[in-house]
Amino acid sequence: MPIPSAPRFRLLRHFSAASLIGLAVVMVGLTLAYRELTRQHLIEHESRANASLTRAFANTTWGRYREFVVTAPGRGRESLLADPRMSALQTEVRQQMQGLQVVKVKVYTLGGLTVFSTDVGQIGEDKQGTSGILAAQSGQVVSQIIYREKFNAFEGEIFKRDLMASYVPVGHAPGGGPEAVFEIYSDVTELLEHERLAQWQIAGLVLGLLLLYWEPLRLKWASRRAAPEVTHG
Question: Rounded to an integer, what distance in angstroms lies between the CA atom of residue 117 and that of residue 93?
Fold first, then answer.
C-alpha cells in the first residue's frame, strides 16, 4: 500500500505573503511617521507665526488698551460691552487682521475672564482653568490644531475648518510675568489639505520603491522553484 506523500511546503507562496505583509507594515509605518513629523512642523511654524503676529499687534495697541484689560476683573458683560474702548478695539483688530488667515481674536485676564472677543457673544465668559491660559500665565506660547464643523469668524460663520488656536502671553507685569493672554485662531485648512495630499504622494512613492525591490526577489524565488531537480543515478 503506497504511503501518501506529505503535502509540499509552498515556500514561494509563504515568501510572497510574508513579503507583502512586510511591505504593508513598512509603508504604513513610514507614512504615519511622515504624517506626524509634518504635523508637528506645521504646529511649530504656525505657532511661531501666531505669536509673532500677536506681539506685533500688542506692540502697537497694548498701551492704549492695557488699563481696559487689567482692570476688567469684577466687571460684568454689559459693563464691558458698554465701554467705548471695546468698539475701538474691535475696529483695530479687524483692520489689522484683514487679509490674513486669522479668523478670531480673544483677550483674557490672567484669571480667565474673556475681556474681548471678535465673537461678541463670548465676552464676559469665565475660562478660568483653561490649560492654554494656565500655560500662557507662565510665559509659554501654547498651540493646538482643532476642527470645527461651524465657527464664528470675523466675516461670519465658516464651516468644516481646521484651525490653529494659539495662546500668547502679552504685557509685562511689575512683579514679572505677563499681564494678559491673547488667543488667536488662524485657518490652516488648506495647509492640512496640502499635507494630506503630500502624505498620499509619499505613500505612493514608498510603495513603488518597495515593489521595485520586492519584484526581482519574487521572480528569483519563482525561478528557483520552477527549476527541475537534478537526480543522480
Answer: 10
Q: What amino acid is encoded at 27 in this protein?
A: M
Rounded (10°) CA dihedral 63, 69, 75, 76: 120
> CA torsion, points 139, 145, 148, 152, in degrees to nearest 10?
40
pLDDT digits (tens, 9 = 90+) for 153-198: 988 899 999 999 999 999 888 878 899 999 999 999 888 887 777 7
Phi, psi dihedrals of residue 196, rounded to the nearest 5° = -65, -40
Distance CA 162, CA 120 (A): 22
> 10 falls in which pLDDT band (50, 70, 90)?
low
Secondary structure, 3-state, the chain: CCCCCCCCCCHHHHHHHHHHHHHHHHHHHHHHHHHHHHHHHHHHHHHHHHHHHHHHHHHHHHHHHHHHHHCCCCCCHHHHHHCHHHHHHHHHHHHHHCCCCEEEEEEEECCCEEEEECCHHHCCCECCCCHHHHHHHCCCCEEEEEEEEEEEECCEEEEEEEEEEEEEEECCCCCCCCCEEEEEEEECHHHHHHHHHHHHHHHHHHHHHHHHHHHHHHHHHHHHHHCCCCCCC
- Provide the grid cell at 39: 504635523
Cα–Cα nearest to 187, from 166, 160, 161: 161
What is the Cβ-side half-sphere exposure of residue 88, based on CA atoms within 13 angstroms? Answer: 8
